[in-house]
Amino acid sequence: MRPGRGDGLKTLCALESIPDPGAREFRAMVDGEKRRVFVVRRGGQVFGYVNSCPHVGAPLNLEDNKFLDLFQTSILCANHFALFEIESGRCTRGPCNGQSLQPFAVEIRDGQVMQLE
Ligand code: FES
């Protein structure tokens, strides 16, 4: 049975459709509002965040699905070059140093990336 509303899970995409390492953006309901969110993949792990920089609330990316830095080791805000830890969303460099991205709960089930509602 395909998960849907009411069972606490919603399918976003197949894990294989996200580059490794890489990221993909979605629109999803977060706290009752439709928001831009993104999911970063690292091997068999995924990390989800709302696409809003704690600096000024702008989307982090300027190009579609481009959320990682040159080395693919941190999340990059392309506006003022803040860097965030992939695992925690905590800003480690830039104007919002010490602040964090808002988490967006995701997990992998049967090769699918699922939003936890
Ligand atoms: S908007 Fe992200 S660092 Fe300024």
UniProtKB/TrEMBL annotation:
Cited CDD domains: Rieske
GO molecular function: 2 iron, 2 sulfur cluster binding; dioxygenase activity; metal ion binding
InterPro entries, sorted: Rieske_2Fe-2S (IPR017941), Rieske_2Fe-2S_sf (IPR036922)
Domain Rieske, residue spans: 10-115
Signal peptide: none
UniProt keyword annotations, A-Z: 2Fe-2S, Dioxygenase, Iron, Iron-sulfur, Metal-binding, Oxidoreductase
Coiled-coil boundaries: none
UniProt KW Iron-sulfur keyword: yes
A Pfam family it matches: Rieske
Protein name, entry field: Ferredoxin subunits of nitrite reductase and ring-hydroxylating dioxygenase
Organism: Paramagnetospirillum magneticum (strain ATCC 700264 / AMB-1)
